[in-house]
Amino acid sequence: KQPGNGVAISALSSRCEEPVFTASLMENDAYDRIGDEPPNYEETSFSGGTTSNGNGTGNGEHRAVRPSVVSAFGHDTLDRVPNIDFYRNAGSVSGNRAVRPSLQELHDVFQKVSVCDREGSDGTPSDDVESVIPLDNKDGTVRFGWIKGVLVRCMLNIWGVMLFIRLSWVFGQAGWGLGIVVIALSCVVTTVTGLSMSAICTNGVVRGGGAYYLISRSLGPEFGGSIGLIFAFANAVAVAMYVVGFAETVVDLLKENNAIMIDELNDIRIIGCISVVLLLGISVAGMEWEAKAQIGLLIILLVAIVNVFVGTGIPASTDKKSKGFFNYDAKIFMENLPPDFRDGETFFSVFAIFFPAATGILAGANISGDLKDPQDALPKGTLLAILITGVTYLGVALCVSATVVRDATGNINDTIATGMDMFCNGSNTAACEQGWNFSSCDVSSCKFGSMNNFQVMTMVSGFGPLITAGTFSATLSSALASLVSAPKVFQALCKDNIYTALKFFAKGHGKNNEPIRGYVLTFIIAVAFIIIADLNVIAPIISNFFLASYALINFSCFHASYAKSPGWRPAYRYYNMWLSLFGAVLCCGVMFVINWWAALLTYAIEIFLYVYVTVKKPNVNWGSSTQAVTFVSAVNNALSLTGVEDHVKNFRPQCMVLTGAPKNRPALLDLAHCFTKNYGLCLTCEVFVGPRTETLTDVNAGMEKNQMWLNKKKRKAFYAAVACDSFRQGTENLMQASGLGRLKPNILMMGFKKDWRTADTAGVQSYVGVLHDAFDFEYGTVVLRMNQGLDISHIIKAQGEYTHASYLVVNAYYCIIKHITNVFSFLFSPPASVTTPQSPQVVVVNERLVSNSTQFQRKQGKGTIDVWWMFDDGGLTLLLPYILTTRKKFKDCKMRIFIAGQPGRVEQDRMKSLLEKFRIKYADIHVIDDITQNPNSNSWKMFEDMIEPFRLHEGSKSTTLAEALRKDNPWKISDAELDTFEEKTNLQVRLNELLQENSRAANLIIVSMPIARLGSVSDHLYMAWLDILTKNLPPTMLIRGNHKSVLTFYS
User: Fold this and answer.
1) Residue 780's beta-bridge partner residues?
2) What are phi and psi of 24, to 5 degrees?
3) Transmembrane residues, as ranges (predicted)?
4) Alpha-carbon gap, residue 1007 to 246, rounded angstroms
5) Of the candidates 843, 842, 834, which has an alpha carbon nearest to the alpha carbon of residue 804?
């Protein structure tokens, strides 16, 4: 508080950019800034009436101010009416992100808050894909509707090289019976995938990245990152496939005109490379030119398809008949019904060659960032394209099957005299009955017919050059679509920075953010596969990659539906989760059927990339269905545990660790982590003491920060904090309310209160009260003592982390200067340190303290863990050190057991038998038979000096004075109390002597914790017991179980 002006200034983020000053119902922030522009504020009757210039996009326009809420409710209020801008991501460019008033603002309007993103952002625009592709058409960005952007693009990509070059061959090999199955199976896969894709893309705003974006935002970066790379590569290889198909057609024309340049194979390579260079030029020119080229190609393609249907009805010439074309004939149609697989082909090999013809369904999705309304365009355009192209494929194939025989010689002299058709039999019966003798094809291979001539469509059509033009159109349009899709998907993947090495390819150029670098990479991959120059070899390669993408799209839809997340609300309703699962399984099955080794290779690559991304843990959170399923599974598993009673064999240490901020007491956290890692639950807890209004801000601010610190340090623990008036009350609340069902702490772990002798009485009573509460709530209790202490928070601050006061002053000064001057581009760096230099002695002490505090983060050398199991507490004193010996850091430490007993081997043999039944390894067992001796005078003198300031000494005073002393100082240690617990006191002092005698060199000492009877032992006497017991020793843990068995020797 600044005295006199009533303005509360709070800097909530070290990276705060713009301040907002709230005092006596002054102005409240409404819009979050975008980029480096200032925020805008809403004008209301209680605002200062100033509105910043700039619209957050850097063009200097004045942002429209929303209607005042005063007009909606008739009175001044900070509450805002529902608005879509409140729900936008940080850095969204589809609109200005608004920041609604926080709950703290509404609850306490004098609370100062900053404009910094309340979702934990650093105030900079999000790195998500949607923040880097502008949606405002005012800057000249090209946007497509569902017809031009999806329907046309998908149809052109599906009507690819197979339509005019391989479709007749597929139906020649498989017959039209199995040929229909080939097309139907392909359509089933694509239709189910289309339905799943429609559901996913209508469940929120879709940005650039196509299949990668859909999968990554549904299943998370692990699946999305792996399939995104594969899918981009498949599209790059598809460019080669379509270009090779184009080159084959050109080479066939060259053959007909005897114009072969070198040979057929090298001509395909030369023409293919030249073609892909020209296509690259069109793509680099921009999406607008590419779209215009697609429309022109579509018109040519439609004319060519119509030309095929027209040509089948035109009477065949003698030349066409010699090549196997006889107009419509029922006998030809029936002769082409059964399959006739040749040259080692099978149904599945033929299917593998045809299936890439159906893989164009994602052509629209791949440019989703360039669509006006992806949610509306993708379902409508994709499903309609599948229907139209499926019917077209089927219609063209059946027309050819009814008019063209499988084999023909092409010799116009191979006719049969009239009346000789009665001798027709064998495989060419239909042609024979038409008066043609193609029987020589049974002996030697022929060059014509649907089985031998890839240019059947040209022969069947009414005007051959149109089919050639249609082939060029089909192949080049598909190649162009793939050449655009691959870099777009790859760019989206790189922008998410999942693979840091590929960040180079994320940069875009021009108004449409064109991925020029991605185009060049795609060009190189395409040229490499064009060198293969064999369509039948390239097609199966990409079939598996596309099928893997389709499988994951289907699985994404199923997974999101199965998770039943409230956020899964697709606008497209015509899908079914089980149909999507069937589609995913079908895609996987088809992958193995097409080529089993290629399928295994695809999965191996995908698994490798998945593991890589999982290990790298990219810093993204897209609210994937994987998170939703994990949450549902966790809740269900937690509920299932509640239906089963605890069993001693399944006991797990579940620790509540009073670390304060986790980084402040590393030794305590490290030991707790050793107990619970892969075994049980660990809660690091902090109690904020003070008025709730003052501490709640610290509680809320520390939740995410401390949990992120635990995750960063790879500590499998949770952070919890409470705000209370006292430390004991806060700890009591934590012990009663922490946990979920059986996932509930059963051990309280805390540090020893080293300053108990100088602390105030209330502090000591609170500390001991926590131990009493732990016993009352039947918690196992662990107290760790290290000679150097546990708390290193002051060192952390001294090494560069600001104290709250310095942090507040520096940032408040910084924000005030920026707000007054409006120098928004000025980069201000706070001082690196506000602490004063430390003396050399202090530095040495601090270094020693840090080294001791972090010793359990290092591997322990050869040594011992000495367990002084004085009292049977259910076995916790023995179980915890055993768990330590199973950890890598303590694997070189042997466990020694110390027990109290009579001289001789009876006690030793008894303990040896017990440990063997418990199957606990140990190095040695020591029986302490002189534990009942009185401590020496020096030790006793040390104890007396320790408790002297806290004694009443009422025995040497009159009865009246003694009673007055007890009344005024009820917390002090009375002579009667010392007499009553003399033996127990002697035991603690004597134990310390024995510990120094036997365990001085141990790596870690475990001792049974003495219990103070509630109401009988004063707090200071109990603290003296714990102090004298653990004084001048290596790291020591006092452990007391809840006296319920945690060990058993039964199976």
Assistant:
1) 747
2) 50, 55
3) 150-171, 177-206, 227-247, 267-285, 297-316, 347-369, 381-405, 463-486, 519-539, 545-563, 575-598
4) 83
5) 834
Are 418 and 435 in contact by the 8 Å Cβ rule? The answer is: yes
Residue 262, both tokens: 């070198």
pLDDT tens figures, 204-256: 777 767 778 877 887 788 888 888 888 888 888 888 888 888 888 788 888 87
As a whole number of angstroms, the distance between CA 317 and CA 320 comes to 5
Query: For 75, how many CA atoms within 13 A lie in the half-sphere containing its CB?
Result: 0
Strand partners, 724: 689
Whether 222 and 614 have beta carbons less than 8 Å apart is answered as yes
CA distance 210 to 228: 9
- Give me the amino acid identity at 712: K
Buried/exposed 496-508: b ≥16 CB within 10 Å, e otherwise: bebbeebeebbeb
With 0-12 CB in 10 A as exposed, 13-18 as middle and 19+ as buried, what is 17? Answer: buried
Q: Yes or no: say if 177 and 339 are a contact pair by the CB < 8 Å rule.
A: yes
The candidate with the shortest Cα–Cα distance to 219, out of 499, 552, 620, is 552
User: How far apart are the C-alpha atoms of 461 and 310, rounded to whole Å?
Assistant: 7
The pLDDT of 1020-1033, averaged and rounded, is 94
Q: Is 625 exposed, middle or buried (0-12, 13-18, 19+ CB in 10 A)?
A: buried
Q: What are phi and psi of 831, to 5 degrees?
A: -55, 145
Q: pLDDT tens digits for 745-777?
A: 999 999 999 999 999 999 999 999 999 999 999
Q: Give residues with Cβ within 8 angstroms of 552, minimum separation 6.
A: 211, 215, 219, 223, 227, 584
Euclidean distance between CA atoms 547 and 230, whole angstroms: 11
Identify which of 169, 730, 711 has the alpha carbon closest to the alpha carbon of residue 397: 169
CB atoms within 10 A of CB 414: 18
What's the rounded Cα separation, in Å, for the pair 733 and 626? 33
Q: How far apart are the first and last CA of the chain?
A: 66
pLDDT confidence of residue 72:
53
> What is the chain's Cα-based Rg?
40
Of 163, 456, 466, 172, nearest in space to 316 by CA: 456
Which 3-state string (H, E, C) describes 462-509? CCHHHHHHHHHHHHHHHHHHHHHHHHHHHHHHHHCCCCHHHHHHHCCE
C-alpha closest to that of 32 among 106, 87, 81: 87
Distance CA(224)–CA(218), nearest Å, equals 8
* CA–CA dist 451, 168 (Å, integer): 8
Residues 6+ apart with CB under 8 A from 170: 162, 179, 182, 350, 353, 354, 397
Query: What is the amino acid identity at position 464?
Result: G
825 or 334: whose pLDDT is higher? Answer: 334
| Angle at the Cα of 239 from the Cα atoms of 233 and 244, rounded to 5 degrees | 130
**C-alpha–C-alpha distance, residues 206 and 627, integer Å:** 20
| Cα–Cα distance, 323 to 446 (Å, whole number) | 10
Q: How many residues does the chain have?
A: 1051
Which structure tokens are listed for 432? 């024979």
> What digits encode the pLDDT tens for the residues 388-417?
999 999 999 999 899 888 888 888 877 876
Torsion of CA 29, 35, 38, 42, to 10 degrees: -40
Euclidean distance between CA atoms 367 and 373, whole angstroms:
12
DSSP 11-78: ---TT--------SS---B-B---TTSPP-B---TTS-----SB-SSSS-PBPPPPPPHHHHHSS--S
Report the DSSP beta bridge partners of residue 866: 896, 1005
Owner of token pair 């952390």: 796
Instruction: Give the residue among 1000, 998, 984, 882 at the shortest CA–CA distance from 943.
Output: 984
